[in-house]
Amino acid sequence: MMQPSTPIYQFSSTSPYSGLILKREDLSRVGSHKFRYFGPQMKKLATAGVKNIVISTTGNAGITASFLGKQLGIEVYCLMSDKGDLKKAAEIQRHGGKIFLSTRPVRFAKYLAKKLNCPLLKTSKDGAESYQTLGEEFMLQIPNLDIIVNFATSGTSSVGIMQAYQKAGKTLPELHIVQAGKSCSIAREFLKDEEVEWEEGVGLADTPRREEVLKWIMKSGGAAHYVAKEKYEKACKELKGLDLETSWEGAACFWVAKEEILKKNPGQTVGIVFSGRAWDENTKSDFKTVESVKEVDEMIRFL
Questions:
Q1: How many Å apart are CA 179 and CA 190, to the nearest integer?
Q2: Could you read off the pLDDT of 24-50 as tens digits, one per residue?
Q3: Tens of pLDDT along 70-113?
Q4: Angle between helices 156-167 and 210-220 (to 10 degrees)
Q5: Using CA atoms, how far apart are residues 27 and 187, in angstroms rounded to an integer?
Q6: Are 159 and 283 within 8 A, CB to CB?
Q7: CA–CA separation, 31 vs 277, rounded Å?
Q8: Could you give the CA distance from residue 159 to residue 79 in angstroms, rounded to a whole number?
Q9: Does residue 224 contact residue 189 with C-beta atoms inside 8 Å?
């Protein structure tokens, strides 16, 4: 029998949160579920002799790549939005990653990878397969699961989870996708007939696997949700009071599970993916920024 990579946390039957079960991906060595995909990919690159990689990240992928790169002897260059979570930027730096902030991280990541003649690390079209292990662990640890709540930036982990259930011939749990900030294309499509105050923030404006995720939502009878910053920050404080700190993405999922799902579905079992750790407060302010091709070229001279 397989051994789960991360534990679950279940609230007691007398708790107001009874029925909610947390899948603690934030307790993995890298603090998120990104190890499930990037672990095998980074090992392949190291075996092939790759010494440098570039990645555009909102945080967790960069932390994971930097952690693994340090172990495997690969230099990791991370481009991140200047509006991103600087606590995550500090964690990338702590693990030895080279972090650069920009208003256009995706564009300059592509340019830097081309100039360094090295791989641009990103989730491939078949990347969902790596996240099937998360679905398999849900089936093993919570066999009576009715609903899964997961945050979607690229949507890859959600696709992998549902593929695992289908592959095993199991009844699909309802898939409830949570989005916030700039990551909102799935929620926009699902909630197009509702009045929603869309906010700015970090993330991907166009979720790469939007159509796939929407199909899984419809097939499973699930839904998509959008959470305002005020709500997920409130959920962060609530979780902290329970000694359950996680990322704002995980807190947004918790808020949806308790406020929008559990109250409408009493008695059902709801699994929440806690996909990122609550990192220590950032104390650094020396992150380098790049805002032009010229600045990238200048940066390369000193690498």
A1: 11
A2: 999 999 999 999 999 999 999 999 999
A3: 999 999 999 999 888 888 999 999 999 999 999 999 999 999 99
A4: 40
A5: 28
A6: no
A7: 5
A8: 26
A9: yes
Q: Amino acid letter at 275? A: S
Copy the structure tokens of residue 34: 């990104």
CA–CA dist 200, 83 (Å, integer): 10
Whole-number Cα distances in Å, 293 to 56, 109, 184, 299: 16, 11, 29, 10
Q: What is the DSSP letter of 26?
A: G
What pLDDT sits at residue 103? 92
Q: Which of 124, 132, 99, 125 is nearest to 33 (CA)?
A: 132
Give this prediction's pTM. 0.90
Reported as type and span, the H/E element at residue 266 is none
* Cβ pair 186, 177 in contact under 8 A: yes
Lowest mean pLDDT among 168-172, 177-181, 191-195, 223-227: 191-195
Residue that has been written with the tokens 């959920």 in this structure: 235
Domains of the chain are 8-32+126-274 (3.40.50.1100), 35-125+285-301 (3.40.50.1100)
The residues, any chain, with a CB within 8 Å of residue 289's CB and separated by 6 or more, are 82, 100, 101, 102, 295
Dihedral sign, Cα of residue 130, residue 136, residue 138, residue 141: negative
